[in-house]
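Thread: quick sanity check before group meeting

JM: Hey all, I'm pulling together slides for Thursday and realized we never actually wrote out the predicted structure for the chain we discussed last week. Dropping the sequence here so it's in one place. If anyone has concerns about the input, flag it before I start.
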Amino acid sequence: MRSELKIDGRTLAYTDFGGTGRPLLALHGGMSEGRAFTGLAAALGEEWRVIAPDQRGHGDSDRAPDYGREGYVADAVALLDHLGLHEPVTVLGYSLGGLNALHLAAAHPDRVGALVDVDATVQIHPAESDWFDFLRGARYTAPTREELLEAAGPLGAQIVGQALRPLADGSGWRLPFHPQDQLDSIEGCRGDHWDAWLASDCPALLVHGTRSAALPREVADAMVTRRPGTSYAPLEGDHFVPFQDPEGFYRAVQKFLAGL
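JM (edit): ok, ran it. Output follows.
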């Protein structure tokens, strides 16, 4: 079910996949949205109620004044409060969402009973590649889907092709995020996040794409070694391993959840 809440006059949209099972808050990666977890919710079945927000500036959620960790974490807490989920919940996050999840666990240990980090590193440095270059100067709106996809380029079209939104006034189409917001969010992730990773002591799982450029093997090994109670699930693939090997991803998460 698609729903929304207001936070300081700003809309935060979310998908509540329903069910009477234990709640699992799922935080998507950058340039994505909550519906990215549709497959996971189906795989977990009735035992888990997956709740997946469109994080600020993504999907159907409004743009926000900033994209630092405090803002993302505050939105997650507001959603839990809105749903009346005051007891600890399991939190799963991929990439940007994984970074936000570990900061949520660090800042609010009383709200997080277990943590699943999906290929989110704790050491983020300026990108050396041109992977995000399509965002620089990209168009946010266009009269037609085709113009918007053409302006995004091959990589951008691959990322946003299935998620474009019609403008409310019917005058055209928009990306599911504002390009500048994404650049600001990427920049806001830079830095060392070891303190936040080590601040919580709930059971945790690190799902790792073994060929991930975002999370090198040596960093993944250190994350597991240095944080007590952390399990490790390596999957063959790169940073996009949840989508490259969805069945392996689902099995790894199910195995961890079954042991809680």
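AS: nice. The chain has a mean pLDDT of 94. The CA atoms of residues 143 and 171 lie 6 Å apart.
JM: adding both to the slides.
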